[in-house]
Amino acid sequence: MSRLAVRRWTVGTIAIVVSVVVFLVPFAFILVTAAKTAPEASTLSFSWPAEWKLWDNIAAVLADRDGILIRAFVNSIVLTVASVVIMVVLAAMVGYVLQRKKSRWNGIINFFVLAGLIVPPAVVPTIWVLQGLGLFKTLGGLILIEATFGLSFCILLFRAFVSTIPRELDEAALIDGAGPIRLFFQIVLPLLKPVIVTVIVVQAVAVFNDFANPLYFLPGDANATVQLTLYAYASSSTSAGQLNLLFADILLITIPPLVMYVFFNRQIVAGMTSGAIKG
After folding, report:
1. CA separation for the pair 147, 204 (Å, rounded)
2. Does residue 75 share a domain with residue 15?
3. Mean pLDDT of 223-248
4. Domain range spanning residue 242?
5. Does position 265 have pLDDT exceeding 80, yes or no?
6. Which end of the chain has less neighbouring CB within 10 Å, N or C?
7. What are the TM regions of this chain, as residue ranges (predicted)?
8. Quick one: average pLDDT of 38-59?
9. Does residue 57 contact residue 248 with C-beta atoms inside 8 Å?
10. Are residues 199 and 227 located together in one domain of the fold?
11. Is residue 60 part of a domain?
């Protein structure tokens, strides 16, 4: 076996071991603890359950507090879909214009785009603005917050990918009589499919798993998201001695993002690297 083959085999083995330790072991611990009875789960030991109670525990979590977890899933899905749609449409248009149209404003706009990645969000001023607009404690206000916080990253991705699209396509479409709106939505946007998939998966997982922003800007049981139900469930006196139900809640919340990554991980890598290779 050549040295290159040995090096590849070693790197692959290390990567598999690290993946098992970092991802599979914690998930297995969550699964077996969620399947235990309350006394067994309270020991927090990594052992096989004496009696499987997984479905009973999941049913108890879904029925807890008048089905707040189901309402939270609905709120999180609405929040995720609306935020990601706004991010994809706005970031694609801004990235396209920044890459194609050179003007004296590009430097200022790029400064604000990079500032969006570097400057941490200010909670109190943001709440003050939302209260002034009548959007505080509303799902619409949180959708705008999530979309705003994710725009900078998305704009950079779209701008890098647009640089790989030949300008001749724009010129050909303009010669054929296409206007700016038709040029973007019928010619350019379909070509951005790889990076659109990347943005959808990455930002959907980020928004769905976000805990801090819903806690600050959307308090209250009626507006709860899945992460807030976990926080409330862990801190409530009802679940203090029922870690099996707490881990069943964690298991239900973990499944949707995990499924997205399993099915779309190749598209994420393709979208992240395509702009870097051709740019």
Report:
1. 11
2. no
3. 75
4. 65-275
5. no
6. N
7. 12-35, 72-96, 108-130, 142-162, 183-208, 245-264
8. 86
9. yes
10. yes
11. no
Q: What is the chain's mean pLDDT, rounded?
A: 84
Are 44 and 125 found together in one domain?
Answer: no
Segment 197-221 shows an average pLDDT of 87
**pLDDT value at position 273?**
61
For residue 208, give both structure tokens.
């769905």
DSSP string for residues in the chain? --HHHHHHHHHHHHHHHHHIIIIIHHHHHHHHHHTS-HHHHTT------SS--HHHHHHHHHHGGGTHHHHHHHHHHHHHHHHHHHHHHHHHHHHHHHHH---TTHHHHHHHHHHHHHSPP-HHHHHHHHHHHT-TTSHHHHHHHHHHHHHHHHHHHHHHHHTTS-HHHHHHHHHTT--HHHIIIIIIHHHTHHHHHHHHHHHHHHHHH--HHHHHHS-SGGG--HHHHHHHHHHSSSSTT-HHHHHHHHHHHHHHHHHHHHHHHHHHHHHHHHHHHH-
Q: Please state, in angstroms and rounded to a whole number, the distance separating the CA atoms of residues 256 and 169.
A: 38
